[in-house]
Design goal:
176 residues, mainly alpha, 6 helices, 80% helix, globular
Length: 176
């Protein structure tokens, strides 16, 4: 049971980091705009390409070497969480472009705390994976994580669209 849970966690994080990478590539102008607004020129150059490349590499590492991938994922998520919390002081509500148009989210304390909690989960899973002796993520579990991740993303987008349609009066619910 621990083995399956650890593999599913690694597969889920692989999917999460792949979606973050693809979201930034798909909405490159938005990602570039966010990075340009938030950071100095020196930092901007490193983050603009470095973050998406780190996300893509972490996704692959999570599949090929789950324990190492989870350790890297925990570190990245902790850095993202602390960074978002620090940025929230001056830029609360600004679109973070974390997942591009796939899953819009805003800079704020909730996003920072979410990233920190995910970091703790990744670190715990790295510990469990070491004990279970897992060398690679099972293809079936990777596919299950992809299906579940896609379903969650679609459900989140449907909720966001319902909320947006209510605020503009679509479907008979008029906002006054």
């Amino acid at each position: 049971m621990v083995r399956v849970a650890a593999e599913l966690t690694a597969a889920g994080f692989a999917w999460l980091f792949l979606l973050a990478f693809l979201g930034k590539v798909d909405s490159w102008a938005g990602w570039r705009s966010t990075v340009t607004r938030l950071f100095s020129r020196r930092v901007r150059r490193a983050l603009l390409v470095g973050v998406p490349l780190a996300e893509a590499a972490t996704s692959g590492l999570l599949i090929l070497a789950p324990r190492g991938g989870l350790v890297v994922a925990a570190g990245l998520l902790a850095a993202f969480g602390v960074g978002v919390i620090l940025l929230a002081r001056r830029h609360r509500g600004l679109d973070c472009s974390c997942f591009g148009a796939l899953a819009p989210s805003s800079i704020g304390g909730r996003l920072g705390v979410r990233d920190l909690l995910l970091s703790v989960i990744a670190a715990a899973a790295a510990f469990l994976i070491e004990g279970a002796g897992i060398r690679r993520v099972n293809l079936g579990e990777l596919l299950l994580a992809a299906v579940a991740g896609t379903w969650l993303m679609v459900a989140g987008e449907a909720k966001r669209l319902r909320q947006a349609s209510r605020s503009v009066g679509v479907g008979g619910n008029r906002a006054v």
